[in-house]
Specification:
alpha/beta, eight-stranded parallel beta sheet, 10 helices, globular
C-alpha cells in the first residue's frame, strides 16, 4: 500500500469517488492538508478526516500566501484545531517568495514563526512549503531576492528553523521537495523527511530526480499535492491521490528498486514520523 503524504481533499466536489479511486489504486492512507481557502476554512480537512477515519488524517495551518491573515483570532483557531487527535501535523506553513503579490517577507516570517510555536506547544510535526524566486517574474525577483539571491527563501527558511524549530527536537516534512542536494542535506540534518510530488516526473526536474535517487531511504515520502502537480504521463488532467502510483514508480526507478519496495519503505517512514497512523495489529 502507498500513502499520499500531502493532498488537498477539500478541493474536490466528488470526494467519495476520489477516495474510492485512491483505495482501488492501493493508496491506503491520505494526509489532507488543512489550509482551506484561508484560515476561515482551515478546518475543512479535519472535517474530512473525521468523516473518513479509516483513510484520512489531517493537518491545519496558514499558508504563507495567507500570512497576512495570521491574526490572533486565527492563531487561536489553529491552536484549538491542532489539539484534535485526527490532526497529526501543522501545515503547510513556510515561505513563498514566488508571487509578486504575496505578503511581505516580514509578514510571512512572523506568521511562520508563530505557527512553529503552536506546533512545538502541541508536540506535532510540521509540513513545510518553500518556494523560491528562481523562476518568478522580474517584479517578484526584485521584491524577494535578497542581494540577487534566488535561494533567499531557502536560506531564510533554514535559518528560522534553526532558531525556532530544531531546538524542540521535533521532525517534519519538506513538502514537494524541489531543492538541491545541499538543501536536502540541510533539511535531513534538521530532522525533516523529503516528500516527492508529481513534479519529480517532469523531464526538466533533473536536480530533484538526483535528490530522489540519493536521499537516505528512511527519510523519503511520496505525495500528490492533488489536485495540483499531475505526474507524467497524466499531465494535463486534474491530479488525484490515485495518481501517486506514477510518482512512486518513477522514484523507485531512480533508486533502482521495485515499486513495491518503494511503497513499503515510504509507508514505514510515514508511520515512523506519525506513529498514531500505524494500524493496530
Amino acid at each position: 500500500m502507498l500513502i499520499d503524504s500531502h493532498c488537498h481533499l477539500d478541493d474536490y466536489e466528488d470526494l467519495p469517488a476520489v477516495l474510492a479511486n485512491a483505495q482501488a489504486a492501493g493508496v491506503g492512507t491520505l494526509l489532507a492538508i488543512g489550509i482551506g481557502d484561508g484560515p476561515d476554512t482551515m478546518h475543512r480537512a479535519l472535517d474530512i478526516a473525521h468523516a473518513y477515519p479509516d483513510q484520512v488524517f489531517a493537518t491545519v495551518g496558514i499558508h504563507p500566501q495567507e500570512a497576512h491573515q495570521a491574526t490572533p483570532e486565527h492563531l487561536t483557531k489553529l491552536r484549538t484545531l491542532a489539539a484534535d487527535p485526527r490532526c497529526i501535523a501543522i501545515g503547510e506553513i513556510g515561505l513563498d517568495y514566488y508571487h509578486a503579490d504575496n505578503p511581505d517577507v516580514a509578514v510571512q516570517q512572523a506568521a511562520f514563526i508563530a505557527q512553529l510555536a503552536i506546533a512545538a506547544e502541541a508536540r506535532k510535526p510540521i509540513t513545510i512549503h518553500v518556494r523560491t524566486s528562481e523562476l518568478a517574474t522580474p517584479a517578484a525577483k526584485a521584491r524577494y531576492e535578497a542581494h540577487g539571491n534566488p535561494d533567499a527563501a531557502w536560506d531564510d527558511l533554514l535559518r528560522i528553523l534553526a532558531d525556532h524549530w530544531t531546538p524542540h527536537a521535533l521532525p517534519g516534512i519538506m513538502h514537494c521537495f524541489s531543492g538541491n542536494a545541499a538543501q536536502a542535506a540541510a533539511s535531513i540534518a534538521a530532522g525533516f523527511y523529503l516528500s516527492f510530488a508529481g513534479n519529480v516526473t517532469y523531464p526538466r526536474s533533473t536536480t530533484i530526480q538526483s535528490v530522489a535517487a540519493s536521499a537516505p531511504a528512511d527519510r523519503i515520502l511520496v505525495e500528490t499535492d492533488a489536485p495540483f502537480l499531475t505526474p507524467i504521463p497524466l499531465r494535463g488532467q486534474q491530479n488525484q491521490p490515485a495518481h501517486i502510483t506514477h510518482t512512486a514508480a518513477l522514484v523507485a526507478a531512480l533508486r533502482g528498486i521495485l515499486p513495491e519496495a518503494l511503497a513499503a519503505q515510504t509507508t514505514a517512514n510515514f508511520h515512523t514520523l506519525f506513529p498514531t497512523t500505524k494500524p493496530s495489529a
